[in-house]
Write a structure and sequence with these properties.
The complex is a heterodimer of chains A (204) and B (105).
Chain A: H1 19-49, H2 59-62, H3 65-90, H4 94-124, H5 133-166, H6 172-203
Helix pairs in contact in A: 1-5, 1-6, 3-4, 3-6, 4-5, 5-6
Chain B: H1 21-43, H2 48-69, H3 79-104
Helix pairs in contact in B: 1-2
The chains are: A mainly alpha (204), B mainly alpha (105).
Chain lengths: 204, 105
């Protein structure tokens, strides 16, 4: 905790120091409101169609709780490391921030790897995208979330490169902050996915 | 900025010494809520309706914890984010009810 480190002359909470930064964050929240609606449509389609399994496997025989639990733990931990990155941003510890962002990315990659493995297992068990209304809505919803994780990894990865090139400034700080908010949002969506899709699917 | 950390006489730097404690507390709370939800399903001996209630309750609590602490929505100046997300949630509820009604009744 180098609380007295004013070396770069950055204000406290550099992401809200400029009007541009504040507007960027505000605009991003409006985007997240729209993302909520996007995932809401996918959830409503899934909820309406989840019992239509045709000849394919039923959710309760398909889902493996240990794997879902592992994925949940990975994503939850990555959300914690990304909030640590924002705390490091607030105290201008650039190296600590980049370190936490790298840990976040690695955990995100672990989550994504687990999900790809999971999907390939399901396809082997005869649960393809076109098997039933349940399988289509399942892959669309969970796949959309996975795509968001993949995009987040790419985005934060590029931001790390930009931090190395341009340093921590009032221009780059809002980008880091906004990407952390995005990452938490992905985790929040996952809370509903593991509850509604996996746990409720297991209950029946 | 109401975290109760001990300041060492530097009141002006108060907000700068904010530690990771509250985020670790939020993490432990999320962890506990997740484990309760998984345990309720893994136990398998609770009746279905009650399990559903537990699951939905745990999910809503966890989302509130994560949004308040990790997405900083409990902090000052977050009225617009709350309005944006709330507007999204209202539309989501409308759509979920509509889809279920449309397909099942």
């Amino acid at each position: 905790m180098s609380a007295h480190d004013h070396a770069e002359g950055l204000p406290h909470q550099p992401e809200t120091a400029t009007l541009e930064g504040r507007n960027k964050i505000l605009g991003f929240w409006i985007f997240l409101g729209a993302e909520t609606v996007l995932f809401g449509t996918l959830f409503s389609a899934y909820l309406a169609l989840r019992h239509n399994v045709m000849d394919g496997p039923h959710p309760s025989e398909l889902f493996q709780l240990p794997m879902v639990f592992a994925a949940t733990m990975i994503l939850l931990t990555s959300s914690l490391t990304s909030v640590f990155a924002v705390q490091a941003l607030h105290t201008h510890r650039k190296n600590a921030m980049v370190g936490w962002l790298i840990v976040t990315i690695l955990l995100g990659l672990g989550f994504l790897g687990l999900e790809i493995y999971e999907f390939s297992e399901y396809v082997h068990e005869g649960h393809g995208f076109t098997t039933s209304a349940f399988s289509s809505s399942f892959y669309t919803l969970v796949g959309f979330h996975g795509a968001h994780v993949a995009f987040g990894i790419l985005w934060i990865g590029l931001l790390i490169l930009q931090i190395y090139k341009k340093g921590l400034t009032t221009v780059t700080a809002p980008k880091i902050y906004v990407s952390a908010i995005y990452w938490h949002f992905i985790d929040v969506v996952w809370v509903f996915i593991f509850t509604v899709v996996y746990l409720m699917g297991k209950v029946g | 900025m109401s975290s109760n950390h001990s300041t060492t006489g530097e009141q002006t730097k108060r907000h700068r010494t904010e530690g990771p404690q509250k985020h670790i507390v939020a993490f432990i709370m999320s962890l506990a809520l997740t484990i309760i939800a998984f345990a309720a399903v893994a136990a398998g001996e609770i009746n279905t309706t009650f399990t559903y209630i537990i699951l939905v309750g745990m999910a809503i609590l966890q989302v509130f914890v994560q949004m308040a602490f990790w997405m900083h929505m409990k902090d000052r100046g977050h009225l617009f984010p709350i309005i944006a997300i709330f507007a999204g949630v209202v539309i989501v509820f409308t759509m979920v009810i509509m889809a279920l009604y449309w397909v099942w009744w």
